Automatic annotation (TrEMBL):
GO terms for molecular function: NADP binding; phosphogluconate dehydrogenase (decarboxylating) activity. Residues 160-287 form the 6-phosphogluconate dehydrogenase C-terminal domain. SUPFAM superfamilies: 6-phosphogluconate dehydrogenase C-terminal domain-like, NAD(P)-binding Rossmann-fold domains. Its EC number is 1.1.1.343, 1.1.1.44. Pfam families: 6PGD, NAD_binding_2. It comes from Phytomonospora endophytica. Keywords: Gluconate utilization, Oxidoreductase. GO terms for biological process: D-gluconate metabolic process; pentose-phosphate shunt. It comes from the Bacteria. This is 6-phosphogluconate dehydrogenase. Belongs to the 6-phosphogluconate dehydrogenase family.
Length: 292
């Protein structure tokens, strides 16, 4: 099957390779000419036979919106546009509505797998019509991991990115639980080899996971994590997950706390904790540490 891919970064470029390895014909476009197969979106569309399928792998927000609109002017009735980036699910509904009058189908695909996806496959959470998803199944089958799991047609347009949003919210909570456990082990006077404890958990325990494997990898490279800072950014999905929880009145204690912990990581000196320290000093005479 033919496919166009727009955006050939770490994931998009590896997806192109995985699809080609599976025998599909892929034409890729990227603003970096060293990565691109063609020199423009126009050339990418012209290089595909109709009905076309084009997969977007660019940052969410304005970059995705601009690309959707640009391709909307180039594609034809019967073509399908797939957004595989980390777009908010509400954007999918807007994009599908924009393309529908032109007869262009729209599918949203939440993609998980990171830089390991080339070898292991990508978990795909897809939203769109039965007809559009069915037509794209050869592509999805090539990208997903081998075996029974790793793909779901989650529902209509928006469902794929909604599922990926919740997936990433869960990821926030799992990562933070491992991080807190690591910190407690490192603070203990009883445990003398923290990396060895983490490594031992990789088999036979109920908390084993790929994330735990990756923490073990990180500790093997830097046993005390001395070469990195604690600053942790967020790409948006955690915030959107918490916003949806508020809208639907669903309690998300762990995911919300893990998101707020990321915010805290960006503070050199927490204003909230400074206020706590000042209050303890005021009501109880507890000592405060001065910066002087």
């Amino acid at each position: 099957m033919q496919l166009g891919i727009v955006g050939l970064g770490k994931m998009g470029g590896n997806m192109r390779t995985r699809l080609r390895n599976a025998g599909h014909e892929v034409i890729g476009y990227d603003r970096d000419p060293n990565l691109s197969d063609v020199d423009s979106l126009e050339a990418l569309v012209k290089g595909l036979e109709g009905p076309r399928a084009v997969w977007i792998m660019v940052p969410s927000g304005d970059a995705t919106r601009d690309t959707v609109h640009a391709l909307g002017e180039l594609l034809s009735e019967g073509d399908i546009l797939i957004d595989g980036g980390n777009s908010r699910f509400t954007d999918d509904l807007v994009h599908a509505e924009h393309l529908a009058p032109k007869g262009i189908g729209y599918v949203d695909a939440g993609v998980s797998g990171g830089v390991w996806g080339l070898e292991n496959g990508y978990a795909l959470m897809v939203g769109g019509s039965d007809e559009d998803v069915s037509r794209l199944m050869p592509i999805f089958e090539a990208l997903k991991p081998e075996g029974e799991y790793g793909f779901v047609h989650a529902g209509g347009v928006g469902a794929g990115h909604y599922a990926k949003m919740v997936h990433n919210g869960i990821e926030y909570g799992m990562m933070h639980a491992y991080a807190e456990g690591y910190e407690l082990l490192a603070a203990s006077e009883h445990v003398t080899d923290v990396p060895a404890v983490i490594k031992s958990w990789r088999e036979g325990t109920v908390i084993r996971s790929w994330l735990l494997d990756l923490l073990d990898n990180a500790l093997r490279e830097d046993p005390e994590l001395a070469d990195i800072t604690g600053y942790s950014s967020d790409s948006g999905e955690g915030r959107w997950t918490v916003e949806e929880a508020i809208r639907l009145a669903v309690p998300l204690h762990v995911i919300s706390a893990s998101l707020f912990a990321r915010f805290e990581s960006r503070q050199d000196d927490s204003p909230a904790m400074k206020a706590v320290s000042a209050l303890r000093n005021q009501f109880g005479g507890h000592a405060v540490q001065s910066k002087k």
